[in-house]
Write a structure and sequence with these properties.
The radius of gyration is 27 Å and the shape is elongated. Helix 12 packs across helix 14. The chain is mainly alpha-helical.
Length: 447
Amino acid sequence: KQGTIADVQQILARIVPRAFRRPCSPESLAPYVELARKLLEDGGSFEVALRRALKGILCAPEFLFLEEPVISVGDGDSVGEERETKSTVIDDFALASRLSYFLWRSLPDEELSLLARRNELHLPEVLTKQIERLLHDARSQRFVISFTNQWLRLQEIDFTVPNEQLYPEYNQLLRQSMLAETQAFYREILDRNHSVQTFLDSDFLMLNRPLAEFYGIEGVSGLAMQRVKLPADSLRGGVMTQASVLKVSADGTRTSPVLRGTWILKNLFGTPPSPPPSSVAAIEPDIRGATTIREQLEKHRSDASCNRCHRKIDPPGFALECFDVIGGEREWYRVTQGGKHVDKPLHPESPKHHVRYQRGQVVDMSGTMPDGRPFAGIREYKRLLLEDETAMAHALTRLLLSYSLGRPLRFSDRTEVDRIVAAVRKDDYGLRSITREVVLSATFRKP
């Protein structure tokens, strides 16, 4: 039986509300029905006519953009709203989309849409249950991957290719394991509501066999990520010492305390340092290995205008000098010439032979915090960071709020960030608690 224009109307009446993420009147369907009608009248087939209507829907602004109509509410009508005056908030359909795209990276499902139609989604007890439902769903892994990619710049892992002569152990299996570790680590903290301080240091790792072998940790088998107790002698723990982060914060040949330090301040904590003055020349590492960047940095640190920034940038950069460009632990720099020959087996069962790189100068991982506290390595540096129990909580709250809203935070958002951090203190600044409070905040429902 040949389809009719009535069939087109019936089909579009089911599709358009899903595509536009809100109820649609017959008048709003009319332009797309008309596209199909004209083609049918010209002798076109029902299938082609329906395709034309669907193309029109997929090109519509209502589909391409998240429309957020606002409504006026009074005291107590808005989640997290305490003012007595009227204020504007997005309606429940926009709230459903904002929540769904935050935690699922996709359009709202039928349950969210139903609650929006009933005008119940904004109620705190209803919204809290929906947050937990979405986080328990497998689709929330899209959020984990997307957020960690943006937060820690993991999508940049292929921007540089490690020098094969210096880092022959790097391969695609190791690369994929690096990314999977960070994603699994974030998932573990989120699911167990661990404190966000765990991102600075942890007593566990998420590893598979290839990554465990690379880290020098025994007893891990299989390709699936699994929780592993941190060995007492390991420098790992937290995201700073994960190979993915160490890889994206270096180039393919060498590390730079300045680049890594700047990367940590900008991405991990969301507090980028000021750009250097145009009159200051960039430091170029000596690829011959005759001098270290630390030695070259002394000239910058002796200049008062440079030292204002370097005293913040250099500590994380120096502390992480014990890791090479692919995240391997090291006590000395690998160089292509001018060093001492190195003998090691390519595989545990193979005999030792000369590798293509040579042993350069010894790594110095000591430094001084901006307030003058010294540290001798990455363990002490992380311990000093942990003394501030709210820095990471503020950083993650700002990052999650900005990510969920799809915009940079403004000065006016600072009060709400402080409120969220204070609210989750009782949960030891748990990541899941922060995520929940972000959604329940007044800012999350503002246009």
